[in-house]
Design goal:
Layout lengths: L6 E6 L3 H11 L5 E7 L2 H11 L3 E5 L7 H11 L4 E6 L4 H10 L3 E4 L4 H12 L4 E2 L1 H13 L12 H11 L4 H8 L3 H15 L4 H10 L7
Parallel strand pairs: 1-2, 1-3, 3-4, 4-5, 5-6
Helix pairs in contact: 2-3, 3-4, 7-9, 7-10, 8-9
Length: 218
Amino acid sequence: MSALDRIRVLIVDDHAVVRRGLRGFLELLDDIEIVGEAENGRLAVDAARSLRPDVVLMDLLMPVLDGIAATAQLRDEQPDLQVVALTSFVEEDRVTAAIEAGASGFLLKDAEADEVAAAIRAAHRGEVRFDPAVARILARRVAQSRAPANPAPALTDREREVLGLIARGLGNQAIADQLGITERTARTHVSNILGKLDLSSRTQAALWAVEHRIAGSE
C-alpha cells in the first residue's frame, strides 16, 4: 500500500507511555501511518494544522486544553478531520460533550489494539463507532427520552430512514447499499439532514437520532 493510501493518524495523550504503546502497534499496520504525537490539546491543534492527519486519537483528560475543547476546535478548523476519543473511564456528561464536540468514535483506553485500529478505519470511512459502555449510555438516554412523537417534521421519510442508519454507525456507502441508492445520493441526504437539524457532524446526528428514538432496524 502506498503512503498516499494510508490513513494518517495523530496520537494525542499526556502520558508518553500511552503514546508509545499506541504507536508501537499502529506502526505495524500497512494501512495506517502515524504522522505525529502531541501531549495536550493545544499542541494537538497546532500539530493538526501542519500535519493534516485524517484521524486523531484524542485523550479527553489533558492539561492546557482538554480533549473535548481540542476536538471542537479541530472540527471547526478541519471539518473533514475525524476524531476518536479515548478515555480511562466513562461519564455520561463527558461522553455527550465529546460527541457534541464532533468526535466520531469513543473508546476506553483498555480497548484491545485491534479495536483501536478498527475505530480508526471506521472513522476514516465516515462511520460512527462507540465502545459498548458508551452504547449502553446512549441506550439509557433512549429509554429516558421524552421526545415528541414527531420530533423532526422537516425531514422527509427517506431522510429519517437515512438518519436511523447513521445512528447504527453506517457510512455513506453502506447506507447506499442498504437503501439501493448511489453513494452520492446518500451523501446528499446526510448533508441535508445535518443542515435541517443544525448539526455539524454525523456523530452528532447519531446522538440526536438516539435521543429522539429514530433508530434503523437491524
